[in-house]
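Justification of computing resources. Each target in the renewal requires a structure prediction run like the one illustrated here; the chain below, 237 residues long, is used simply to show the kind of job we budget for.
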Amino acid sequence: MKLKLLAAMAAVVFTTNSYARNEFYLKPYVGAGISNIAGDAGERSYLKIMGRNDDTKLRSVYTFSAGVEMGYQIHKLRVSTGIGYLQTGNQNKDVLLVFEGNPPVRDSGSIAVKFKHLLVPINVGYEINIGKKFSITPQTGFAISYNMQRVDDWNTNLNTEKTAINQGTFTNLYKPISVFSSSSLNFEYSLVKKIRLFVAPAFYYMLTNMDAVHNPAFKTTEHPYALHLSVGCYVGL
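Resulting structure tokens:
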């Protein structure tokens, strides 16, 4: 009886140690998905004041992300940082524009806006093994964002073009630094001893207001968010 108990304990210890990792790692990834904003950004705030709530609905746009995490795993706990690139944005498909003139010039169509962010994240994750080859790692954290650029994609009756607003205008409208929260659920497959492939739904949400408010009577708030599906690999070092 004692021999069987010792054998069972040894098996548990061996199994636990076979899953445990103590190593540095790299984790490159690419992702894509949809993005929109929460809050009353720019013209939406003005239109709501005017009672035109039906004109303030923004649609999601497709956006892209990529990056590489650098971290350390202690048994099942992971702590990482790195560098990443994230696009956020939104689209208004029912824009009605009136330009000054005699007579005034009217235009309508859609305008999509995309922002480019450079991220420096700090993440914590925990690996849950569900077999010899498969594991699930929930991960959460935050990222400091350097807001780099805004690109407007016009598709109206009178205008079809994609342009980046100049840096002076961008700096006047938006804050250069923001903070995102991020959460992901990594589904991992062990390819060989040091390499694991993964797919992960990931959610990014800007905690701070990106808009630079200069007029207290006309406050705007802009909190971009994105839901992406990422793929990549975990490389133990």
